[in-house]
Amino acid sequence: MQIYWTQINQIIQEAPEVRTYLLDCPEGFTWEEGSHTHFALEGFNAGDKPNRSLIRHMSISTLPHENSIGITTRIREQCSEFKTILRNLEVGNEVAIFKTHSNVPLKREDKNVYLLSSGVGLATFRPLVLDYFNRADNVNQIHSLNIDSSKNFLFTNIFKSIPDKKFTSQFVDNRQAYYEEMKNLATDKDGLFYVVGSDEFLVQNIEVLREEGIKPEQIILDKHEQQLPEFLSV
Q1: What total number of domains does the chain contain?
Q2: For 53, which DSSP code?
Q3: Closest-CA residue to 103 (of 7, 230, 211, 225)
Q4: d(CA 122, CA 115)
Q5: Which domain of life is it from (predicted)?
Q6: Is pLDDT above 90 for 58?
Q7: How large is the average pLDDT for residues 134-149?
Q8: Alpha-carbon distance 97 to 87, whole Å?
Q9: CA 218 to chain centre
Q10: Cys-Cys crosslink for 191: which of 66, 95, 112, 206, Cβ 3.0 to 4.6 Å?
Q11: For the chain, how far is it from start to end, CA to CA, in angstroms?
Q12: Are residues 119 and 217 in the same domain?
């Protein structure tokens, strides 16, 4: 397993509790849209065993052509040891990334794609949308639906409806509006439904989609293949 140590080159305050950490791209490090990585802080591998409290599984919110690895995360006032350390890091500090993989690349199957997310989960979808804008081949259209009760919606410069590009974006701040709209989207019985959020959020979304007649193979989750049956089994 290769561990890439790299520096923070910029910190962007996306919203009151959300930051994006932009990292230098180490030589030889590659990724694709929908990728996640293990993001670790200094000292995580100092002992005999890795200190798991200093490691988090994070989505990469950028594409390679942006020349930085973006890690977007919510840091609340009351937070874990990991987030407390992260909050105090500055440009120039070193972090590590390793075990990078994509469970949710953009499927190009001549279908409509629906991106369903909660809060900062939208960071996983940012690269998919940019990839679609760069090359729309074999994707009919994309519709993004995001729920964020904070009302501090993310990436609104990218997640805005562009009819010419067959891209629509919706933000809602309550569950009732979210699930009503999701049921409307699920009238497309041939669409592909990507879901990103907490496990509880995934379970609730899958339940609604299945009730609306969407098949498990149409639901794409940011989970390893061996984890999918526990979410998608009937």
Answers
A1: 2
A2: G
A3: 225
A4: 9
A5: Bacteria
A6: yes
A7: 97
A8: 17
A9: 18
A10: 112
A11: 36
A12: yes
- Which residues is 85 bridged to in the sheet? none
Q: Quote the CA–CA distance of 215 and 62 in Å, as a whole number.
A: 30
Residue that the structure tokens 């030589």 belong to = 27
Closest CA to 58 of 90, 19, 9, 89: 19
Residue with tokens 């790299």: 6
As a whole number of angstroms, the distance between CA 116 and CA 136 comes to 19
Helix residue ranges per DSSP H, the chain: 81-88, 122-134, 175-185, 199-211, 228-232
Select from 74, 102, 130 the last residue of a domain: 102
Q: Which two tokens stand for residue 170?
A: 């919706």
The pTM of this model reads 0.93
**Closest to 82 measured CA to CA, from 52, 108, 102, 113:** 52
Residue 99 has which token pair?
């075990």
The range of the structural domain enclosing residue 85 comes to: 4-102
The DSSP string of 158-207 is: TSS-BGGGTEEEEEESSHHHHHHHHHHHTT-TT-EEEEES-HHHHHHHHH
